[in-house]
Amino acid sequence: MLNLCTFKTILKVIKSLNMKFATISCTLLGLFPVVFTSCNQADRITAEKIKKAVDEIWVVDTHEHFPAESSRLEANADFFTLVIGYLQADLISSGMSDDELEFMLDNKKTDEERWKIFAKYWDLSKHTGYGQCLKETVKGLFGIDEITEKTFPSINERMKETNRQKDWYQYVLKEKSHIDVSIVDPLGTYSHPDTVYPSEMFVKVRRFNNFINVTKSGIAAIGVQNNQIILSLNDYLVALDTAFEKAVTQEKIVGIKSGLAYGRKIYFEDVSAEEAAPLFSKVQLAKPLNGNEYKKLSDFMMHKVIQRAEKYSLPIQIHTGLLSGNFRGNPIENTNAIHLSNLFLKYRKAKFVIFHGSYPYMAELTYLAKHYPNVYIDMCWMHIVSPSASTRYLEEWLLTVPSNKILAFGGDASIEWAYGHVVLARKIITEVLVKMVGDGRFSETEAIVIADRILRKNAIDLFKLKKVDDQWHRPL
Ligand SMILES: [Zn+2]
User: Fold this and answer.
1) Residue 172 falls within a domain, yes or no?
2) Is the pTM of this model over 0.85?
3) Which end of the chain has the smaller Cβ count within 10 Å, N or C?
4) Distance from the alpha carbon of residue 113 to the mean position of ligand 1, in angstroms
5) What's the total number of domains in the chain?
């Protein structure tokens, strides 16, 4: 096939020879194989250089929910620990029943029985992004190329061994994955401020859902946590100030996170304090709010949380687009990042980091990130949700949105999957950049600069991260 490089070179030769038209065709026929070979070789060298550069980047992983290492190592890990929720959702999507899932995850059943159930649906799902991520993970961490009945016992054994392996996190994240630091959004018990995430590998963000979803027991708990008596909406906002102050100075968060898209439409109306105060009093008096009232009070609080994030220059990570699991009740159109436009317009100094490429609403996000200086695209989770959409849209975004606005990796899975995921992400990024250089859109040097930006520098700049003596932090 005549590629752009070949075509351009032939044109140059014709120009330099200044040939008459009649002689051109004969000369072309003679030159073609030579030019084609040398161009192919040049393309290959460029591709190799870009691949090497992308592989060598020490990535900033913008989104994870890792458990603290001590509890991960105390858990009875085995092969099925690798079959994380994402892959379980694909297995269910392919036909696995709830009973079969329960059986597969039950470590009191025999390994053989559990494998049999897995194998039936794995065969139908192994080609998806999640399937590829699992294969890549097993291949890279344990040197086992295929997941089959034959290899299953060794993978199972190797996973059991990881429980006894000291510094497993360090080995997987640093040595194997070249992930320099991960921004962790701790969930459940791990969200307790005392959970240790060593700063040579992790920094944290915090959710303020407990303030946004206002309930009577929630108000009481917030009062206790902040050592404050909360009698009014005003007191509640003072408690929010205290919580932010503590999170920034003591817990050293680098940003905040919202996962509200799992339960509602992410349109947050601008509600006045006059309207919100009586609703807050109703909650305190244990009088029920109707759906609209509850939404208004949450909307009001979301604006208050954003105002504080803006004040402390903390980027706001927002879940948009696809929801994990199966049969989620919230209609997917409620999660489209387009609903957030009023916030982008109002809070111009805030930095909104839009998660998961807003999949499947990537086209809308292209516009939002292009138009609003305060909107950033974060591709976390996306490479394994859809490797092909990631490839298509990374090209689209690089051609549409300034390159400082794209964050190209966040694992959003388990420790082990962070490895497989980053391998797939590097592959996709390399493929896109090589294509764009081939198309004559960037030089090789520009492509390498862009790779470093989207995998590392942009996140460091946006979250104001600093690494001193191998410890990551965000200076106050
Ligand atoms: Zn997540």
Assistant:
1) no
2) yes
3) N
4) 31
5) 3
